[in-house]
Amino acid sequence: MLNLEIMKSNLLKYTFITSFIITLLFSTNGVAQELDASNYKIRFNLKTVKQSDNSRLLEVIFFGQNKKDRKDKVPVFDAEIKFYNDDTLLGTSKTSNEGIAQITVPENQTYIKDKDGYITFKAVFEGSDGLDEEDDDVSIKDLHLELNLEEIDSIKTVIVKAFTLDSLGVKIPVEEADIIISVEAMLSKMKLEEGTIEDGEFEFEFPTDIPGDANGDLIVYSIIEDHDDFGNVIQKKSENWGNFQNQIVKEENKLWSEAAPIWMYIVLTILLVGVWANYVYTARYLFKIKKEGKQLEVNTEKTN
Amino acid sequence: MNLENRKRELAKEFSPLLEKTTKTSKIWIGFLIAVILVGVYAFFLQLFKGHIVTGMRDNVVWGIYIINFIFFVCLSYSGAFISGILHFFKTPWKNSISRIVEIITVLSLIIGPIFILLCIGRLDRLHYLFLYPRIQSPITWDIIAIMTDLIGCFIYLFLTFIPDFAILRDNSENAPKWRQKVYKFLAIGYQDTPEQREKLHKVTRTMSAMVIALAIVAYSVLAWIFSLTLQPGWNSSIFAPYFIVAGLYSGVGVIIIAMYLIRKYYNLEHYIRKVHFIGAGIILLVISLLFGYFTFSEYFSRWFSHKIQDANLLNTLFTRYFWMFIFANYIGVLVPIVILFFKKFRTIKSITFAAVIAVVGLWFNKYLIIVPTLETPYLPIQDTRPEFIHYTATWVEWALSFAGVAAFILFFILIMKLVPIIPMSGIIDNERDQKKNKKVYKKIVTE
Amino acid sequence: MENNKTEKGGTNRRKFLKLGLMSSVTAVAGASLISNLAIQDEEVTDSGEKMRLLTPDGKIVEVDASNINKYPEALITPEESRKGIPNRKFVMVIDLAKCKNARKCVEGCQKAHDLDYNEEFMKVQLIQDNPEASPYWLPKPCFHCDEPPCVTVCPTGATFKREDNIVLIDNDRCIGCKFCVTSCPYSARQFNWGHKDKFDDTSQPYSPETSVPAAEGTVMKCDFCPDMLRQGKLPHCAQSCPMGVIYFGDKNEDIVTNGEETVRFSQLIKDRGGYRHLEHLGTKPNVYYLPAVNRQFPLERGFNVDEDIIERYKDVPYVQDLKKQGKI
């Protein structure tokens, strides 16, 4: 996940290169003429996610969808997207090669709300010679999601509280909202429970047989998805609730490990030492024979 | 100085073998060199273009190279084995053939491993075998075994050559200077004194025992390359002894062929006599019975228990490879047995014929062990490229195979130019022994 | 034959040829830019892989993926790749009931590992266990065995078993003896028989974790895409499968995912009767299969592929029957 973020930021760093390439592509449009966008219906969708650190992610997905072949989607790349709260510019970002533009608004940002407490976000692509202007907006209430992992009578319990704050800072429990409890895995999140928050609260008995990581730690998520009033809200918490039992043993001295089983070294050594001792023994005798030969030569010379 | 005279006599008798080169032998040498050169060209082609020039592909990754490798290495081990036994048990009629056996041993042990090198995709990284050795790998064992065996065989061969070098050193006044120097160096001051003779006999005896042991280990390691894998046609516990017997079978066969050719072209009828052929023929008979027994056991147990993969393999063997199977495992075993079993069939020519059948049959026996097994893996081959489904050797592979055989013969001829093919020292030893107890060896005067 | 197929296979091949001039220009431009900015010392070369994008000016363009995709990735050197990702034990679960031989896994894998048409780390086989049995499609990657015979027999340690269950090949170390190919009972390994131009591609440094670039005279096979796993992504085959056939995950966590749903590994194996292929060989594979029961697609859907692919299955009794009836 982290890597992904780094990559994205790196991509942004190279905007110069990418924009250069784009200009270049534009200048050679004679070659690319047949690939006109007129067959494609342009999609432009804004979504908002309140993240676990209470910052807010605004994300635009911008792509063209083939009118005939709906599976054929072409992302819009390097388009500048402006994100607004009412008329206040929150930030701008360019779409990635997947057609995604994102900004993260920090927790301490104060938003303009309407009289019912709704915050309106708007994303705008200002248009170009070839593409029309696009915009999309969402209005949501700022939902506070509290996630607590508690052991009640040695039962591991997930307790979620959801409320909004009125203008005076008074907590107003959410009447009803669908919620998902998930646990994080290496490649994805695993859904444990789907339920409904009623009167601002939801409780869930956490299963006892999830291993977690090597320390038995696991990360629990409570997620509200695509709610009409609240958008996406995610909260997470880590707890040592896993029952990780797999012993991580390093395999050594196996046929398939780097070092061989000990007996193999022993047998090989015995064999080789035995054979080479014999060779040395033979060589020694040969030297003796040679010595004797020399002696004989000297003797015969003497007698002569 | 009766003994010295006899030595001089023998040296004179064998000197034409060493010094004269006849026209036919010149043509032969030229032909062999030509075959080798084609092989060298094929080798460079494979080196630069990659293994794509061979018929090997992803399923059959080892082809006739590995079959030649097994064939030559087995030949060598069996040479060592037989030679070791001849020396160790002081076999009476060993002298005429022991040198032939020793030369076969060393030559095939040099040529065999070249074929395994041809199987290796990255010859430039060969030294990794020593830089990053893993002793779990049967290939590592094989490399250690071959190298140890090669050194052992060289030492052993040298030991048996020393007395002859000494005789040649003392009796080659007319030979060129370089020859004299070579003989002097190789004879390491051996003067055939009783002490020296005793010492030499002692180490030769120990080394002959060592060479037998090494051959058994090396054979087994070679068989294990195949039998330790999970492949249906290879994963067999009798493979190690089977390879020993098969190796001896081809070994004795090649020795008989070599005896026949040497006897014929070097006019050594006086030394290599019918009695040798009959002796070797009887050994070949015994081994062919053993070989047939092992072959039968191997396929019989697969056929009887017929695990699905074994059944598939047998099905391939009896359809696509039917005639090869018949030739290798029926004709290649039964014909030598029939020829050698009946006394009246045992002539020099028929024994040699049986040996040829045995050797060629054995090569195909190895082919049937390697190729059909790789063509019937556990999961069916689902491919449309014919060369990935079935293996056919390309001309490159054949050229290199024949180059190997040519090199074997060429080196054999060249070594025979350096030392007499019949050990002179052995003749003298025998004559000495005969004088001591004439009665015992009366019947076996040839040595 | 092979070339023909490659052209058919790569949908963008024809367009790529048309844009050949353009991409060579971009390559040159990229190189000069780099020398100006000195951002990276790697040269931008044409990887041949095209990516279609819509520009803000409303033009659909194809650009060379190496120009866009060039994130400076963390290179895992051959030495580092021997260690494995700590505390992980990767497993794959393949749900045979969902496979319809769409071959997207094969294609995704080939694209990611720069493989030719006939080079497949992931093969889809049609298996009919006996003439009466119902045949099924069997996607077959490397099984990354716990007791891998290929690793045992390697004389130089070029192929190795990592602590995270993955069996990799370091083709810098491989001497090409092919012993591993013969000792693998699942025919998972392939040899690079001859030279190919793609081996000379230096646009990315070699890592056993990507298996790219391959090298002549060495062995290659499915690598479970550890480079993707390090980024928290699924292997290419699992990612490309439109049916969610391939689940992948960490056995220590006991969680596997196919990108759409995430489930407990042990539960999945228990509920669906998961098994390993050729269990009796004792190699202890890390790829599990869910039997092809209650199938989501009729088998015939799998024959909606190239003639050449169908031809591969000609020895399967079921296919022979179909041919007799003139259905194929």
UniProtKB/TrEMBL annotation, chain A:
Transmembrane regions listed in the UniProt entry: 262-281
Keywords, alphabetical: Membrane, Transmembrane, Transmembrane helix
Top-level taxon in the UniProt lineage: Bacteria
Keyword Transmembrane assigned: yes
Name under which the protein is recorded: Uncharacterized protein
From TrEMBL, chain B:
Transmembrane segments annotated in the record for this chain: 27-48, 60-88, 100-123, 143-162, 207-227, 239-263, 275-296, 321-342, 351-370, 395-415
GO cellular component: plasma membrane
Cross-referenced InterPro entries: NrfD-like
Family, as annotated: Belongs to the NrfD family.
Pfam family, one: NrfD
Subcellular location: Cell membrane
Coiled-coil regions listed in the entry: none
Membrane topology: Multi-pass membrane protein
Protein name from the UniProt record: Prokaryotic molybdopterin-containing oxidoreductase family, membrane subunit
Entry keywords, A to Z: Cell membrane, Membrane, Transmembrane, Transmembrane helix
UniProtKB/TrEMBL annotation, chain C:
GO MF, one annotated term: 4 iron, 4 sulfur cluster binding
Keywords: 4Fe-4S, Electron transport, Iron, Iron-sulfur, Metal-binding, Repeat, Transport
Tree of life domain: Bacteria
InterPro entries in the cross-refs: 4Fe4S_Fe-S-bd, 4Fe4S_Fe_S_CS, ET_IronSulfur_Cluster-Binding, TAT_signal
Membrane-spanning ranges: none
Pfam families: Fer4_11
Domain 4Fe-4S ferredoxin-type: 133-164, 165-194
Protein name listed in UniProt: Phenylacetyl-CoA:acceptor oxidoreductase PadC subunit
